[in-house]
Amino acid sequence: MSVWDELQGQAPVVAQLRAAAQGEGLTHAWLFTGPPGSGRSNAAKAFAAALNCEQDDVALRGCGECASCRTILGETHSDVTFVRTEKVTITIEEARQLVSKAGDRPASGRWRIIVVEDADRMAERTTNVLLKAIEEPTPRTIWMLCAPSPADVLVTIRSRCRPVSLRIPPAADVAALLVRRDGVDPAIADRAARAAQSHIGIARRLARDPEARERRMETVRFPLGLRGVTAAVMMAEKLVKIATDEANSSNDERDAAEKVALLASLGAPESGTLPPSMRSQVRQLEEEQKRRAKRSITDSLDRTLTDLLSFYRDVLVIQLGNAVELVNVELRSELEAYAAGSTPETTLARMDAINKARVRITTTNVAPLLAVESMASSLIQQ
């Protein structure tokens, strides 16, 4: 299986990166951009694997079978560093560590590669720490930055990177990948790909988790019963609860596993009070887990609001003459009835209210429940 196989619907990008891996147009810094679900980090990982692939024939690099490809895809290769944050931002100290790492010569591969998956989550002063390292890189070092759009990265960084622009793949391609790679039933794969709006990671979760599909459908159906302030407040509470439950379901098990692994590495006793030095490290882990939980709840709520947005997107599609396929095909009759009771202008205003709530939740310190209640009051059906 080639490293390029997961880049569904991205033929121009694959061609660009394949050529660079073979030595045509290779440069020291790359900026991968595209909307959520387009596969920015997957493209960067595939490119990193192809650059350090062990195949002698350059046309075959990115084989996916050699030890180098497998370890890079598994994120365990000593010469490839993957950077992602589960906090709100990447800190200056973390950026300085990256600069130091970028100065090392590759130990076994052709290239020392730094992949920053959340380049948009760096403040300006943090980004400036990376500027000189990207502007004047050490030999055999390649930087790969990932962000939703070029505008999310400082122009001083952007101007020094070669752009790679990805798009959302067609839902049919995502469904085909789920069937081929994960053995998902074709009907479930098609439904999950549409519901995820071609976001491969979310489509995979929906395809494999019936409870996740039920939570999403509950979210999408909320506007059908939204006919007063009381209903709006109740909807807001449920939306926040759905997002919190979604985040906690993945956090709890991971937090417990991390604590067990830490205690084992410290040689902690099976029972009794921990020594002070161990307690401080456990407290530090717990603080990091709390910060991560806050970020994961914010991300989960943003995704929940995106699911809600798909309802109004489908309503607008119907109001404008069904020019494109619906996301929530199974609700067509309810969507058509809802669309008949409002105008495209009203639908656009409601979509705008949801997007404003998403921005407030992800970029400010507003209490999520207050932001969602304010949004819900704008969605009340007259």
How many extended strands?
5
Quaternary class: single chain
Distance between the termini: 54 Å
Radius of gyration: 23 Å
Which structural class do you get from the secondary structure elements? Answer: alpha/beta
SSE string, helices as H and strands as E: HEHHEHEHEHEHHHHHHHHH
Q: Low-confidence segments, ≥5 residues, pLDDT <50?
A: none
Strand order of the largest sheet: 2-3-4-1-5
Mean model confidence by pLDDT? 86
Shape: globular
Helix content: 55-70%
Beta content = 5-15%
Number of helices: 15
Q: Could you give a short account of the major beta sheet?
A: 5 strands, parallel
Describe this structure in words.
Helix 2 runs antiparallel to helix 3 (67-73), helix 7 (171-182) crosses helix 8 (186-195) and helix 10 packs across helix 12. The chain contains 15 helices and five strands. It has 382 residues and is an alpha/beta fold. It has helices at 11-21, 40-51, 67-73, 92-102, 124-135, 155-158, 171-182, 186-195, 200-208, 210-221, 229-266, 276-319, 332-340, 344-363, 368-377; strands at 29-33, 80-83, 112-116, 141-147, 162-165. Strand 2 (80-83), helix 4 (92-102) and strand 3 (112-116) form a beta-alpha-beta unit.
Short summary of the structure?
The protein is of the alpha/beta class.
